[in-house]
Amino acid sequence: MTTQLKNIPNHIAVIMDGNGRWAKKKGKERIQGHKKGILSVRKLVEEASKINISYLTLFAFSTENWKRPKNEVSTLMDLIVLSLDKELKTIIENKIKLNAIGDINSLPEEVKKKLKETIEKTKKNRKLILTIAINYGGKEEITNALKTIINKVKKNIILKENVDEELINTHLYSKNLPDVDLLIRTSGEKRISNFLLWKIPYAELYFTNILWPEFSKNDFYKAIINYQKRERRFGKTSEQV
Ligand code: IPE
Ligand code: IPE
Ligand code: MG
Which residues form the pocket of ligand 1, taking CB atoms under 6 Å from any ligand atom? Predict the structure, then answer.
């Protein structure tokens, strides 16, 4: 499979879904699916960095995922800490900058600590901006931004007339991320599940039936090739683009 190196999406976001169903299919516990899923993350990050993707944003844990059984939630949190620890060396070697979006301050102490530590240690890197969405919900992100803006308007730090799209953007967790070009969701579900609402107005959506733990390098390139065949019009006519 040949991927053209031109017209590579600048920002790819991924809803990594299907760990539980993969485990079930294999007669394993759900947690085993999450563990296997980490290997897919590793491969994806490596490939994305090879072909010079600038921004890769991964949905790791949603604000809705707290509703899952307690032991699944706590194992997921442990896995996040363990993976960051284990991958730190590779992240640094590959000049990857780690970024996190979501209500990070409400996460368990050790997750918060590990995230902050990894972000700090990789802050000068520029090769690939790898953003982990954790305790992230698109609606929560926008609500949180609005609360801050309203407070600033009340205190006259911001004038009401100056509230525009750009200003709203600068109050989001994802303020430093450009709009998503390609959004990939695995496992056959065709929904957004509250991911990156403000950043996907013109994202090209790509759905695949592959379960996340089986998502390979080839599947990644398939998604990119599919993206490269699309015409992005942004409201214009075909003749104009
Ligand atoms: C995605 O896989 C991982 C997270 C949401 C953390 P799921 O755990 O949602 O897997 P399914 O959808 O149950 O198969
Ligand atoms: C979305 O997957 C969240 C993550 C991948 C972290 P879910 O499995 O939680 O989504 P729904 O509940 O099926 O929409
Ligand atoms: Mg799921």
Answer: 16-21, 61, 65, 76, 187, 212
Alpha-carbon separation of residue 239 from 112, 204, 233 (angstroms) = 49, 20, 9
**What angle (nearest 5°) sits at the alpha carbon of residue 36, between those of residues 178 and 76?**
70
0.90 cut: is pTM over it?
yes
Q: Does domain 11-228 have CATH number 3.40.1180.10?
A: yes
Rounded to whole angstroms, the Cα distance separating 145 from 142 reads 5
Distance 193 CA to ligand 3 centre (A): 9
Strands laid side by side in the 11-15 sheet: 96-101, 128-136, 55-62, 11-15, 182-185, 204-207
Per-residue model confidence as pLDDT tens digits over 130-164: 999 999 999 999 999 999 999 999 999 999 999 99
71 is catalytic: no
pLDDT (mean) for 53-73: 98
pLDDT digits (tens, 9 = 90+) for 95-108: 999 999 999 999 99
Rounded to an integer, what distance in angstroms lies between the CA atom of residue 138 and that of residue 118? 24
Structure tokens at 238: 């075909």
Q: Which of 65, 94, 125, 144 is catalytic?
A: 65
The pLDDT value given to residue 208: 98
Domain-wise residue ranges, the chain: 11-228
- pLDDT digits over 160-217, tens only? 999 999 999 999 999 999 999 999 999 999 999 999 999 999 999 999 999 999 999 9
